[in-house]
Write a structure and sequence with these properties.
This protein has 360 residues and is α/β, with parallel strands linked by helices. The protein has helices at residues 117-120, 147-157, 164-167, 176-179, 202-210, 249-260, 270-279, 319-328, 330-342, and strands at 27-31, 39-43, 56-60, 62-64, 68-75, 78-90, 95-101, 111-114, 126-133, 138-143, 187-190, 214-220, 243-247, 265-268, 289-293, 308-312, 353-357.
Length: 360
């Protein structure tokens, strides 16, 4: 499909720079292609009223790490050069794939010292070797430290990698360490937050429990590739970056039981949806799954397991806008985004949310 089919104009002032307070006071646009009034305006705190007892919410419990690193590249016969790297996928106890800048000047064999020496001296230096180099500035870094020791230093010297549309307007601060994290995050490894989950509060969880809505958790470590723009004109030419995650056998069995008794699977965020669809069979059965998924969902995709999706508002010409268009219909989603823009919804990671029901 042509990528420009998924384009729209977003006024700059619609980009949210901070989350709503309290989190569940954010606006919620309900999009139901099966109702005469397909669009209706609500608050996230109203979510229980759109679900029914026996439905199940599926959350991504990945935890954002301070994966933005700044350092100096060293090479024999050359002076030091300032570089930055955003870790996006762990591939070993001491190895990470990362997007590096300036990517063209980094070579295999280069040594990079990250962090200010005054910050890291108590824990050890955060030094690494460039082991491999891929396309688009992607590199594989082999760190001198490994396992928990490496994790500790990354947390000490790294920064929260704010999305570029926020970072271009303000610097990361201490508040982002809490704001850019769900209240149920527990599995370290994400570069970006599963942002639909940022709207949940203990009060909303209590209301969902009272309404008889189940909660289940899967893990997909969101990578920096989620922020990369599409550089092709046709979706057939786009290659998705891989993201690692897993669905436990126990969670798969419980979700299958929900479907068997007539309940609906409602994914909180496109990350949990992509993971559940990766684990689902053609029959709709969900199985335990672990690995790296590069599933790319565009209109025409046949959804196997997910019935509804709660998700924030996404960038134009993005893979995520393509996904929601596949889920609820391209025309429906263009109408929904036009409505959201004209009525003042806040967009992107810290913005408002939507609840989409599957068109088929």
């Amino acid at each position: 499909m042509r990528v420009d089919l998924f384009d729209f104009e977003l006024p700059d002032e619609r980009i949210a720079l901070r989350p709503a307070e309290p989190r569940d006071s954010a606006r919620l646009l309900v999009v139901d292609p099966h109702r005469e009034a397909q669009l209706s305006d609500h608050r996230v705190s109203d979510l229980p009223s759109f679900l029914k007892p026996g439905d199940a919410l599926v959350f991504n419990d990945t935890k954002v790490i301070p994966a933005q690193l700044e350092g100096i590249r060293h090479r024999e016969g050359a002076g030091g050069q300032q570089v930055s790297a955003t870790l996006h996928m762990r591939v070993g106890a001491n190895r990470w794939k990362a997007f590096a800048k300036p990517g063209k000047r980094i070579k295999v064999g280069d040594r990079i010292a990250f962090g200010d020496s005054g910050e890291s001296c108590l824990l050890g230096a955060l030094d690494c070797t460039v082991e491999e180099k891929g396309e688009g500035g992607e590199v594989t870094l082999a760190f001198d430290l490994s396992g928990p020791a490496l994790d500790e230093v990354i947390h000490s010297v790294g920064h929260i990698p704010l999305p570029p549309y926020i970072a271009a307007k303000r610097a990361e601060d201490e508040r982002d360490r809490a704001d850019y994290q769900t209240i149920y995050a527990r599995e370290d490894g994400a570069v970006a937050a599963p942002t639909a989950g940022l709207h949940f509060t203990p009060e909303l969880f209590a209301a969902l429990d009272k309404a008889g809505i189940e909660r289940h958790f899967v893990t997909l470590h969101v990578g920096a590739g989620t922020f990369l723009p599409m550089k092709v004109d046709d979706t057939d030419d786009h290659k998705m970056h891989l993201e690692s995650g897993y669905v436990s056998d126990e969670t798969a069995a419980r979700l299958n039981a929900v479907k068997a008794r007539g309940g609906r699977i409602v994914c909180v965020g496109t990350t949990s949806l992509r993971l559940i669809e990766s684990a689902a069979q053609n029959s709709g059965e969900i199985r335990g799954w672990a690995g790296a998924t590069g599933i790319f969902i565009t209109p025409g995709y046949r959804f196997r397991a997910v019935d509804a999706l709660m998700t924030n508002f996404h960038l134009p010409r993005s893979t995520l806008f393509m996904l929601v268009s596949a889920f609820a219909g391209l025309e429906t989603m263009h109408a929904a985004y036009d409505h959201a823009i004209s009525t003042g919804y806040r967009f992107y990671s810290y913005g408002d949310s939507s609840l989409l029901f599957r068109k088929d």
